[in-house]
Amino acid sequence: MKSKIFTKIIASAMSVMMIFSMSGVSVKAAQLQENNELKTVMVDMKDVATGDAIVYASTSTSTKTLSKDYATSTGQTGAITSIGQNVDFSSIIPQGSVIESITIYCPTGTRVTQSKYTTINNYLISSYETGTTATVSFKQTNSPSSTSKTTAFSGEAANVKFLVKIQGKIIQQYTGMDGFTVFGGKMIVTYR
Known about the structure:
Blueprint: H1 2-13, E1 19-20, E2 27-28, E3 39-46, E4 55-56, E5 69-74, E6 78-81, E7 85-88, E8 99-105, E9 112-114, E10 118-127, E11 133-137, E12 149-150, E13 161-170, E14 177-182, E15 184-191
Parallel strand pairs: 1-3, 2-4
Antiparallel strand pairs: 3-15, 5-14, 6-13, 7-13, 8-12, 8-15, 9-14, 10-11, 10-13
């Protein structure tokens, strides 16, 4: 009895934070406790040498790392978009939960490479469930502001799969194989 009460107090007193990594493939995480409190799930995107399999986080403290995200263009100028990263919340967020907001940013100090005349402009987030899309400004920061947040998915199901891409622009060719690579980022889904 005391154990159940203690668990319920802990669950309602704290928001749930899940850190795991992903890029280029799907990531799933362990089940979280369900209640009506506002909760968050944080996805930590980092770099590794290879990442060609689906990775499952087995506990709420597990961290899994997949490949970096990048975009390149040979001999062209204009908009470029990264290969993208899938994140699947179907096994971590309880069915019936709805999104309040999504925050996405690149932490200060994260390695980012880009060609001389290439800019990195936006994160593009798409829901596989509803087709809803949102554009969030790409920022390197440790204190994300409202410009790193979108409410475009507010009220939609939270336990779905998203595609996250990074968009940039090649203003002028410099090496003939221009583009960018982002070696990490954070995506935070706030839901009820």
